[in-house]
């Protein structure tokens, strides 16, 4: 009996979704600013006349827009060896200058130059790592992204146990370790999944809802940060850990019932609870910071996973679309922080009314963003960008046709998404991989579609679809 239970447990573990160790190297640099902050690095905010805008924030936004241009023209970026190696050198050297300027005798020039180099190196490595994730299937993208946060947490906690000189030495070596793992990760990718140098970058027209959603939510979270503080604190850390643990556990152990729609649906409650706490408990912001950080991490993880999955489906470099998502987030969260700080500096209200105004404004903006990027769009439009203008036009027509077809036959949002992929000739296994659901779940939805249309095969389904399109 004992060995039967052990064998049954072993069989279950064999079915657990896993990802190769090199893909977790993203965690070494994923939250670099938090790592430096945990080591006691001083901020350069006071060196700029704009409140809440630091040197690294300004440089990060500026360099991300440079990356967009570079990715558009030169992607895939991982093939530019000197460029990637230079980013690791910039991150290492910049971190060293920042640590020297903070640990020993504060030197503003060291801190400023270091933060510029850190921002340039960090943004480049961040985007190149996401380019790697765009070469693996959506299930493993989600797993690697969530697991990398756990790796990041382990690195963060471990480094705090070292003395300042030892920590500084290790921090300067970590970017090169990350590069080594990045190279190892690309070596495991099949040649057919690696983006080619001559691959066309996607049209952004089908992805405008995703970008607008990221902009609106980032602005709302920026406003909240102006009150709860964007400084890495325990509530913020545990809040960011929560959605990553949900993704990690869901993907590994509950793949048959878990999909990314779960993350989309839990983001709204997390944010609403956070803003309500900001409204009702102005004397203790820890709970608000926890829930707002969890909501922020949920939507950002979802946005990057969608972008990488889109690249995987269409076989283009993820660097371009991920750089756009990252730049949009970085820019609008800073705009939101400045807007929230402006309310504080004007000081028209007492603190309670100020927090209430910010909470109401943030909630309204977040609610509006849900209208812009609906769950229906999540299932249908995130991967719609074609590899050519003609392909994009044909897909747009097919989506419109499926939308009308779905409305007439009362298909759900999920069924509509599956019907679209069926119309494109995808198998059940391919649909499961692209929509991040189990094959059995696909079969269940296909059966429901057949029942609603009174058909019994793919051929009959296509015939009904063509008749409706002709009408």
Descriptive account of the structure:
The chain is an all-alpha fold and 471 residues long. It folds into 2 domains: 18-380, Up-down Bundle (Growth Hormone, Chain: A); 389-470, Winged helix-like DNA-binding domain superfamily/Winged helix DNA-binding domain (Arc Repressor Mutant, subunit A). Helix content is 74%, strand content 0%. 47% of the residues are buried.
CATH homolog superfamily of the largest domain: MFS general substrate transporter like domains
Strand content: under 5%
Mean pLDDT metric? 75
Q: What is the name of the CATH class of the largest domain?
A: Mainly Alpha
How many structurally independent domains?
2
Helix content: over 70%
Q: Mind telling me which CATH architecture of the largest domain this is?
A: Up-down Bundle
Q: Any idea of the CATH topology of the largest domain?
A: Growth Hormone, Chain: A
Supply the number of helical segments: 19
- Strand/helix succession: HHHHHHHHHHHHHHHHHHH
Largest sheet: none
Distance between the termini: 63 Å
- State the total count of DSSP E strands: 0
Unreliably modeled segments? 9-15, 45-52, 381-392
The class by helix and strand makeup works out as mainly alpha
Keywords: DNA-binding, Membrane, Transcription, Transcription regulation, Transmembrane, Transmembrane helix
InterPro entries: Sig_transdc_resp-reg_C-effctor, Tscrpt_reg_LuxR_C, WH-like_DNA-bd_sf
Organism: Raoultibacter timonensis
Protein name: HTH luxR-type domain-containing protein
